[in-house]
Amino acid sequence: MLREEIGRILERSDYDYSEYSGCFDIIARKQEVILLKVLENVDSFQEEQSDNLKTLSSNLDASPALVGIWTRREKLHDNVIYDRFDIPTFTPKTLENILVHNINPLIYRFRGGFFAEVDPELLRDAREGRGFSQSELAEKLGTTKKNVYEHERKMMKSKYVIAKKMERLLGSVTRSIDFTSFSFEEAGKEPRTAFERAISKELKRKGFGTSFVYQAPFNIIAKTHDKERFLVFSDAEENEKRVEKNEGYMLAFSEITEKPVIVVTKKRMELEIPVIPADELKEMTKRDIVRAAKKGDGS
CATH assignment of 114-175, given 1.10.260.40, 2.60.120.620, 2.40.30.60, 3.30.70.1350? Predict the structure, then answer.
């Protein structure tokens, strides 16, 4: 099974990880946190899943990726970074090369073909070192002087066939692709229920920022101005079994991300995670809430 294969790769590379079924299937941590969605057919990945991954990533300093084997039209190539709704996408073998062997891909696959990222300083130094003018190099590459000039001015993608020509003439001028260096902006989700809206309003009234995320073990990320984050699961459906079922996932997510978590419910429950009834939340200060969350985290 694909998810088991990914688990073995993570174990070989000394990552702690936990599984979930939602916008991500695996959350893992070594130095950095990675969120992996695992699908054999990457075309079944949905934009809403991407939006939720972006919100998680931007708020928790985590790196998302989609790991799969094929699209509806083709089998994915190893050591190539694809793109699905802006989420870096690649094969299990590529993940193994990145995490186990410390070999990052050199090739992007976008609409229009395969591309590589050309390092402007390496290109300029190599060209000048071999005594080529920009016009001479352009002629040898079958491109324009303007194209060479643009590549020397800033980091940009080049058609892979052109990049390979550059390297045959000049030596190494491309830069490998580190999927953990990608940055994302949150998708700006809105609360889905009146209860979520009320909890968010109360947190904002006390000075927190809030972001909403779905298909995750929690549905609100609360933020302080000094960039502290904690995770909130609001019992929007008054469903105690749903809270209890989610508790293990919340604890695992909290442990791996090192972010505290609380549960806000309409009535008190006994859990390992700190539980704050909604009516008590109204009486608490910002400091009280942060302290309650950190107490559950062991801080």
Answer: 1.10.260.40
